[in-house]
Design a protein that fits this description.
about 100 residues, alpha+beta, Alpha-Beta Plaits, 2 helices, binds copper (II) ion
Amino acid sequence: MLQEPRCGVWFGPTPRWLVPPMITPSRGCTMTHLELDISGMSCNHCVGAVTKALQSVHGVVVEQVAIGKATISYDAEATSPAQIALAIEDEGFAVLTSP
Ligand SMILES: [Cu+2]
């Protein structure tokens, strides 16, 4: 039986709205939009750290990261909001919105 590429692990053509080289959802994959309010961010270094933390989470597509805020989409089959928050907290920031 032919296996469908799992959500979040398929590296295909990058949609215009994504910053390459991001993971793009596979066909039939449902991505959930998520906005996070993050405390402890004060400069571009923090933006970079949060971006890197989010990118390290399997199944996450980073849309935009700014000071105090991150906008992402995630594949609910690959990860969860709790895992995403944990990755940010590992970098020393706090997630204010609990989805
Ligand atoms: Cu900073």
